[in-house]
Structure formats: structure tokens, C-alpha cells
Design a protein that fits this description.
- With about 625 residues, the chain is mainly alpha-helical.
- It has 30 helices and 4 strands.
- It has a 4-stranded mixed sheet.
- The relative contact order is 0.10.
């Protein structure tokens, strides 16, 4: 009886107690917090799906005047899953929509413990070491920060499914039998398909896995498990590109990254790579040639259309992270103001919103596994577990991507937890002072990281400013169906709370929205209101929301106006720079014919066009 309890105790801890702890941690933010910014847009669409049984098509509250084709740019799986959860929560527990959606995000974040447990076990960690990895995953601030209840976003369910894809793949690579490897590879591919139905970010994972497989294939012939996983990944990626509307409309099946994954999966099945007699140089030449040809074909075919819109934004992320700004890219100024696209300095990995006191294990964990592999055999790359190499490779790639754009830290957190659990098991097996010190040091590091997570979560403030809430109430009371021009980051809340179309909002992939953001910024920074009046007349805009002066920097960045540098250096605006339309509206609040002020509260002002024809 005791031995049976001993076998099941770590599983119960990882599958029940740890997720329960993670759920409570993610529900720590005060109940007064609202769904704001991006979360406001997601809540509106989920509420529409719950009430009407379908999403608006087209969405008349976005991209006026024609409305937005949601399926062209967005994976719609989040809205379908969250609506189903909300209906079930209301029927079973009587939860209202707000409470149900908070629980949906928090639970998706807490369940990360389960795939992490399986991943650690695949790396030969014992049951208790795997349970420790699961605990670390749910308390890492890098993961908690973006999966708390008010963070109604793609990140929590997307990371859960993306991590499931990775960990099932790692388990497939480590499987003892070919049949088990094929089964786990198929389940991994299914998780990838579901992840892409919810979130776009998992698109970065198949190329990473393919690159790791290609590198290992140069060292030794690929094992059947690797071939099975890469083949299943390529099939899932193609099915997603053809079956998911946003990828089909973006022609992502022709993207160089997609074709490179397919090429590597095919190359691993080539007889020259599978033969034990093949030379590393020959295998490397075959794999490299396949990648180059696939990338060249993709670059030649994937031109124009929606794919270029998505591709341009992805390239801009990398450019901005390296501090390179291309003047030819009109959206550069906007993306420079997006916090999640900012690079993360290496020192910030140890910050309270990243990896806290566990950051040093980013180096210690791979080092411990390397030492363990060296002690078993001399040639590490040839003898170490392929699952360990895969996990280390994915972690390294995601760490680099996190330094480029800090949002990727949520994807980095689960494999880091897996490596720490596996390293703890390696230290426990290794007698000596170093192993004992490492195990003892790990305990307070986990506790301090959990403390940072709790402080971050409990201090999270997404409450709507009273002044902004009053402005939304005014807009809702005077809604007449015409678009409202406001800073793009406020657009989702205008669409939800003011029940009015937003001239621009946060979906930066939409070409219509991009044009609206840039046109509005340039018109607001003109010396006379003529450009703004012409823009509003062309698009049927009757009201303009002018935010407080601290929003001027974002407007200047969107317009790529030189005054952005002056504002960033905290210098006063002088001469013509202080005589812009929006500056006068912010500072004085007087009329700017044909615009007249009709509402003001705490620095938020609403201007109306006095010459606008009545709405029929």
C-alpha cells in the first residue's frame, strides 16, 4: 500500500495540488481589475459569441467603414474555446461572463504543470523531480505575469498547447519503442494544430525543432523517433496552413519557414541520411541544401498579399530588437511604442517579472546535464539523450527570441522549468558536495520566485481610470453609429464600452487599420485642423477623443515626427512644435474649427465636428 502511494503521490501533486496552487496564484489580482486594452477586444468578441452563437462577420466595429474580416488576421480558436467554457461555467456554477473568463485564463495558465511534468519525466527526471519542475513552471513570474485572470489573451491557452506540443515531442524522441514514438509524435502534432488554432506565436516552434533536428542529423544519422516527430510536425503545419483561415489567407504554406520544415522532414527520410555509413559532411550538405532550396522557393512564391503584411511585422520585430529602425517601414514608429515588442536586456532575465532568483539556473541546468552526460560517456553530442539536446536547443532558441521581444518569455518559462527539474534529478543522483549545495540552493530560489510572482500578481492594476471611464460613458450615451477617432491603443475599449466603431485599434496586422493609425497621427500633428477635418469627413468620423498630454509621445512616434525625440528627452516644445493641432487641443481645450469641445474629464477631451451632417 505504501509503495503504491509513493508511486502516485508525485503524480497527485503535479496534476492536482500544483495546478490548484497555480490557479490561486493567477486569481490573486484584485477583483476590481477590468479587461482593458487587448483583453477588452477579446472579451467583446467572446461575449458576442456567447450571446449570438457566432462571431460578427464582418466586424462592423473595426476597420470602418466596411468592417473587419476577423478570419483574415486572427486565429479564432480562443473565442470558440472561451465561449464554450463560459457557457459551461454559467450552467454548472452560475458564473457570470467576467468571472468565467478570469477562471478560463487562470486555469489555462495553471495547467502548464501537466505537460512540464511529462517533459521532465522524458528527460529521465524522477517523479518527485518532475513534480518540482511542474511547481517551478506554475510559479515562474515569466509565466504568471501574462496568465493572471485579468490577462484575457491568447498567451495562457496558447502556451499550454504549444508546451504540450514540445513536451510530447520530447517524449517521442526519448521513447523506447518505435510504436510509442509514433503515437506520441501524432499527439504532439495534434497539440501543435490546436495551438495554432488559438495563437499565432507557436509558428516559431516548428522551424526551431527542424533546425535542431538538422544540426543533430549532421552529427549522427537521425533516429526513427526524430523522423516520426518531424514528419508529424510538418503534416500538422501543412494541415494548419490549409485548414485555419488566417494562415490560409496569409498564404503561410508558402512561407520560407514552412517550406524549410517540410524540407527537413523529407531530408531526414533520405537514404543517405539514414545510413550509418554516411559521412557527417554528406548529411550536412543534404540538410543544408534542402533548407536553402525550400527557403528560396518560399521567398520567390510568397510575394504580395496578406502574407507580406504579416511578414513585414515579423521582420520589424527583429529589427527593432536589434535597435535598427528602417525609415521605409511606416509602422516602425508604432511598434517602437509596444511594450511587448521591446527587447529584454540579459540582466532583466533575473527581474521580478521574468525568472527572478531562478534565472541563474538558465546556465546551471544545462551545465548540470552536460556534466552528467560527460560522466556517462566521453563524446557528449554523440551519447547524450536526444531529448535533452532537443530541450536545451529549444530553450536556447527561445531565450534568444526573448532577448529580441520580451513577450516570448512566457514560452521560455516551461522548458526552463523542465531543465531545472531534470538538473535537480541529475544533482540528486550525483554524490558530492556540489550536488548537495545545488539542491539546497534551489529551494529558496523557488520560494523567492513564487514570492515575486505573488507580489506581481496581487499588485496588478488594470482598473479603468475614472476619467477614461467617464469619457467612455459619454461616448456610449451619444453613440450614433459613426466611428470615433482616438489613439489606437484605446480602440478596443471604445468598441466594447462605447459600442461605437473605432477608427483605429490594436490589430496592427490589418492594412486598413495601419493606414488609419498613421493618417490619424499625421493629421493630429498638423499645424492646422484642415487635414484632420478632411480625414474625418472622408471616413464619417464625428467625434475625436484627445487623451492627456502624456499620450503625445505615442502619437508622435506613430507619425515619425521629430518632436518624439524632444518629448523623449523631456524637453519643452517650442515654436512650431508647440503649435500642433493635438498640442493645442491637449493644452487649451479650445475650439479648433470645425471641431468644438463637447466633453472634458481629467485631461480626456472629446471634440465633435460642428459641420458634420446629422446621422440618418
Amino acid at each position: 500500500m505504501r509503495s503504491r502511494l509513493g508511486r502516485w503521490a508525485p503524480r497527485l501533486a503535479a496534476f492536482l495540488l500544483v495546478p490548484a496552487l497555480g490557479l490561486q496564484l493567477r486569481l490573486a489580482p484584485p477583483a476590481g481589475n477590468a479587461f482593458t486594452l487587448d483583453a477588452a477586444g477579446h472579451e467583446r468578441l467572446i461575449a458576442t459569441r456567447v450571446a449570438a452563437g457566432r462571431l460578427p462577420q464582418p466586424d462592423r466595429l473595426a476597420d470602418p467603414p466596411l468592417g473587419r474580416d476577423l478570419g483574415r488576421f486572427l486565429p479564432l480558436g480562443l473565442y470558440q474555446a472561451a465561449a464554450l467554457w463560459a457557457r459551461a461555467a454559467r450552467a454548472i456554477a452560475g458564473f457570470d461572463l467576467d468571472r468565467a473568463l478570469r477562471g478560463f485564463t487562470a486555469l489555462a495558465g495553471a495547467l502548464i504543470a501537466i505537460p512540464v511534468w511529462f517533459g521532465a519525466r522524458a528527460l529521465r527526471a524522477g517523479p518527485w523531480s518532475a513534480a518540482l519542475a511542474a511547481l517551478i513552471a506554475v510559479v515562474l513570474p515569466a509565466h504568471v505575469d501574462l496568465t493572471t485572470g485579468p490577462m484575457l489573451r491568447y498567451d495562457a491557452p496558447g502556451t499550454l498547447l504549444a508546451t504540450t506540443y514540445l513536451m510530447l515531442g520530447v517524449a517521442a524522441v526519448a521513447a523506447a519503442s518505435p510504436a510509442r514514438a509514433r503515437g506520441l509524435a501524432a499527439l504532439s502534432a495534434l497539440a501543435l494544430l490546436l495551438a495554432l488554432a488559438v495563437w499565432r506565436v507557436p509558428l516559431i516552434l516548428p522551424p526551431i525543432v527542424a533546425l535542431i533536428a538538422a544540426i543533430l542529423a549532421c552529427v549522427r544519422p537521425p533516429a526513427p523517433a526524430w523522423r516520426a516527430w518531424l514528419l508529424a510536425t510538418a503534416v500538422a503545419l501543412v494541415v494548419a496552413c490549409l485548414g485555419l483561415e488566417y494562415l490560409r489567407r496569409q498564404l503561410h504554406v508558402l512561407a520560407p519557414s514552412t517550406l524549410a520544415v517540410i524540407a527537413v522532414a523529407a531530408a531526414l527520410h533520405a537514404p543517405a541520411l539514414r545510413s550509418e555509413r554516411s559521412r557527417p559532411a554528406v548529411r550536412g550538405a543534404i540538410v543544408l541544401g534542402a533548407i536553402i532550396v525550400a527557403a528560396a522557393i518560399g521567398a520567390a512564391l510568397a510575394r504580395g498579399g496578406d502574407y507580406e503584411t504579416l511578414g513585414r511585422l515579423l521582420r520589424l520585430r527583429a529589427w527593432l530588437a536589434f535597435g535598427v529602425v528602417r525609415a521605409a517601414e511606416p509602422m516602425t514608429g508604432v511598434l517602437l511604442t509596444v511594450r511587448e515588442l521591446q527587447p529584454l536586456p540579459p540582466a532583466a532575465l533575473a527581474g521580478p517579472a521574468a525568472f527572478s532568483w531562478l534565472a541563474w539556473w538558465l546556465v546551471a541546468a544545462p551545465a548540470a546535464l552536460w556534466i552528467a552526460a560527460r560522466e556517462r560517456r566521453r563524446a557528449w553530442l554523440g551519447a547524450a539523450e536526444p531529448a535533452v539536446l532537443c530541450t536545451v536547443g529549444v530553450t536556447l532558441a527561445l531565450a534568444l527570441l526573448t532577448l529580441l521581444a520580451n513577450r516570448n518569455r512566457i514560452l521560455l518559462a516551461p522548458p526552463v522549468a523542465v531543465l531545472i527539474g531534470a538538473a535537480a534529478a541529475a544533482f540528486a543522483r550525483r554524490p558530492g558536495t556540489i550536488g548537495r549545495i545545488a539542491i539546497v540552493a534551489l529551494v529558496p530560489c523557488v520560494a523567492l520566485a513564487a514570492t515575486d510572482s505573488y507580489r506581481t500578481a496581487s499588485a496588478l492594476t488594470t482598473e479603468r481610470q475614472p476619467e477614461w471611464a467617464a469619457t467612455l460613458d459619454y461616448l456610449r450615451a451619444h453613440a450614433d453609429g459613426s466611428p470615433v477617432l482616438a489613439p489606437w491603443e484605446r480602440g478596443y475599449e471604445i468598441e466594447r464600452d462605447a459600442t461605437s466603431p473605432a477608427f483605429c485599434d490594436g490589430l496592427l496586422e490589418s492594412p486598413v487599420n495601419q493606414a488609419h493609425i498613421l493618417d490619424a497621427a499625421r493629421a493630429l500633428l498638423a499645424l492646422t485642423p484642415d487635414s484632420l477635418a478632411a480625414l474625418c469627413e472622408r471616413n464619417g468620423v464625428r467625434r475625436v477623443v484627445v487623451p492627456p498630454s502624456w499620450s503625445l509621445y505615442g502619437i508622435a512616434m506613430a507619425a515619425r515626427d521629430p518632436i518624439a525625440e524632444t518629448i523623449a528627452m523631456h524637453r519643452p516644445l517650442r515654436g512650431a512644435d508647440a503649435n500642433r493641432v493635438v498640442v493645442r487641443m491637449m493644452a487649451g481645450g479650445g475650439p479648433e474649427p470645425p471641431f468644438v469641445p463637447v466633453f472634458e474629464r481629467g485631461g480626456f477631451r472629446v471634440y465633435a465636428r460642428a459641420d458634420a451632417p446629422p446621422v440618418r
